[in-house]
Amino acid sequence: MRVPRTSRGASIAHDAAAQMTVVSFRTLCARMNRVLNRRLPGSSTHAIFAFALFLAVQLADACLTQAGVERFGVAAEGNPLIELSMRMFGVTTALASWKLFSCALGAVLHFTERYLELALLTLVAVGAAAVPWAWILAF
Predict the structure, then answer these.
(1) Residue 9 is assigned to a structural domain of this protein
(2) Domain around 133
(3) Residue 46 lies in a domain
(4) Mean local confidence (pLDDT), 101-122
(5) How many CB atoms lie under 10 A from the CB of residue 115?
(6) CA 2 to chain centre
(7) Would residue 82 count as lying in a domain?
(8) Does 30 fall in a domain?
């Protein structure tokens, strides 16, 4: 197998490794400190709390969905993509995969400082997913 080369003759993989920057532990800690100490615009509230609330709502929705599907079957799931995934891969695998995906997208919103969108998605998840499941499972 032939290794791709640059115009100077070095391998592309070697060039990529040479361009990687080494980040010290102190620099990494400083970056994490900045991320954790960000504030919501116009507020003294830490932005990480909005992300933590989003994660908590996702976890609650996953637990309620798991309970609802165990009680009523896969057909009770309102999202057709998740229902199809549950039928193909199993309830737990599909639910865990979709929730990890949504948490990853929430993390992207947090790290790109899109706090309003993160808050709106949290409200949508509560209103469209967690509350209906809680209402159905209560009776």
Answers:
(1) no
(2) 40-138
(3) yes
(4) 95
(5) 19
(6) 39
(7) yes
(8) no
Question: How far from 56 is each of 51, 106, 126, CA to CA, in Å?
Answer: 9, 12, 10
Output the six-digit token pair for 95.
């639910």
Give me the number of domains the chain comprises.
1
Kindly state the average pLDDT of the residues 126-137.
94
CA torsion sign for 67, 73, 74, 77 is negative
What mean pLDDT is reported for the chain? 87
Alpha helices in the chain (DSSP H): 12-19, 25-36, 47-72, 80-89, 91-111, 115-125, 131-138
pLDDT, average across residues 77-86? 95
Residue with tokens 């010290």: 24
Neighbour-count burial for 72-106, b at 16+ CB within 10 Å, e otherwise? eebeebeeeebbebbeeeebeebbeebbeebbeeb
Write out pLDDT tens, residues 21-68: 777 888 888 888 887 788 888 888 888 999 999 999 999 999 999 999
Average pLDDT over residues 68-94: 96
Structural tokens at position 69: 């599907």
Task: Look at residues 67, 41, 54, 37 and name the one whose alpha carbon lies nearest to residue 104.
Answer: 54
Token readout for 76 is 């009770």
